[in-house]
Specification:
By secondary structure, the protein is an alpha/beta fold. The protein has two domains: 210 residues, Periplasmic binding protein-like II (D-Maltodextrin-Binding Protein, domain 2, 3-Layer(aba) Sandwich), CATH 3.40.190.10; 102 residues, 3-Layer(aba) Sandwich (D-Maltodextrin-Binding Protein, domain 2). Helices cover 42% and strands 14% of the residues. Strand 5, helix 6 and strand 6 form a beta-alpha-beta unit. Helix 2 packs across helix 11. It starts with a helix and ends in a 13-residue tail after the last helix.
Length: 344
């Protein structure tokens, strides 16, 4: 009898995980992820190409792209996509404007990827020379915050800077034709601007290129890409949210491992249909780090201060108030140094 009881108990213990797995399947099989061509989407690409999303239960994957962050944010709220991976400024603005979005993860630090590239014949040697030229950037993007931080760091009057609002492809064309003399943009557009041959990187997101302090560490950018979902989606789909973040954390760790660099570069170049040499050239500008820590909060608060300075937000929320760290903690508790305060 004891033997029969032991066998029955053992069988139950073996069968239980199968039941748990069945219960833990995502509530949805179709997953829409807003997508772009830059390397910040390497974890998404790995998760798709290696079949990890499909194994997790997301059997139909859609990757629409959008011409602006505003359109992508609208698609998220309308449940046309379930995951958005923008720079951190647009969702911070939305969260502080009462739009129900939630930060689920921090994808990669991209401060080095934002660069101010200037035409050599513009003769910009010192910060004050920026007053004389036209600077192309996409208004409302993280580049706007970077220009604000640049002006603040060098004591410039931001209102005197001549800014031309245009998307990155138009910035590159305008720089070529001398309709603007500088662009402030992310990759690969900054890299492509430098390939023109008559241009110089005047400032990266982290380092000066001005003559008087060349090479000095000066923080212009607080940009990082983050994983964002609508609050309604998270509340209605707790399994899908947790499983999706587990897959993305796995992919982030794989992407961050130098041993996988060549494979990852191949996959990113193939998925984005970009030249592999280009992807390799800009790869070092990104640091994939899924940790919720002091640096995450500092970058988010920097963006919040810009929104206050620009008059778009009066009393910003603390970033942890719209950050939901439970799914990442379930994947790897060591990644959550500072727990989010948002709860489903």
């Amino acid at each position: 009898m004891r033997r029969r009881l032991f066998l029955a108990t053992t069988a139950g213990a073996i069968a239980a995980p199968a039941i748990v797995r069945a219960q833990a399947r995502p509530e949805i099989a179709k997953l829409g992820m807003g997508f772009g061509l830059d390397p910040v989407f390497a974890p998404h690409i790995l998760a798709m190409q290696k079949g990890w999303l499909r194994e997790a239960g997301f059997t139909e994957i859609a990757t629409p792209s959008f011409t602006s962050g505003a359109l992508a944010g609208e698609a998220l709220i309308a449940d046309q996509i379930q995951l958005w991976t923008p720079g951190n400024l647009p969702p911070i603005s939305m969260a502080n404007s009462g739009v129900p979005v939630v930060v689920l993860g921090t994808n990669c630090i991209a401060t080095r990827a934002e660069q101010l590239v200037v035409r050599n014949d513009a003769n910009v040697a010192k910060p004050e020379d920026l007053y004389r030229i036209r600077i192309g950037l996409l208004a409302g993007s993280t580049a706007s915050a970077s220009l604000h931080n640049l002006a603040k760091a060098y004591g410039l009057d931001e209102t005197k800077l001549q800014v031309v609002n245009m998307p990155p492809p138009e910035q590159l064309a305008a720089l070529t034709s001398n309709n603007i003399q500088a662009l402030l943009c992310w990759q690969p557009w900054a890299h492509n601007a430098l390939k023109l041959g008559n241009t110089t990187m005047l400032h990266s997101g982290t380092q000066s290129g001005f003559a008087h302090n060349k090479g000095a560490a000066v923080a212009m950018s607080a940009t990082r890409s983050i994983f964002v979902a609508s609050a309604e989606f998270v509340r209605r789909n707790p399994n899908a949210t947790r499983i999706l973040m587990a897959v993305l954390v796995r992919a982030q760790k794989y992407v961050a491992d130098p041993a996988n660099a060549q494979e990852v570069l191949d996959l990113v170049a193939a998925q984005t249909k970009q030249d592999r040499a280009l992807v390799a050239a800009i790869w070092g500008d990104y640091s994939f780090n899924p940790a919720f820590d002091d640096a995450y909060v500092a970058d988010m608060e920097s963006m919040s201060r810009y929104l206050v300075a620009s008059g778009r937000v009066r009393a910003p929320k603390h970033p942890l108030d719209y950050t939901f760290t439970d799914p990442v903690a379930a994947a790897d508790a060591s990644l959550v140094k500072l727990p989010g305060r948002w709860k489903a």
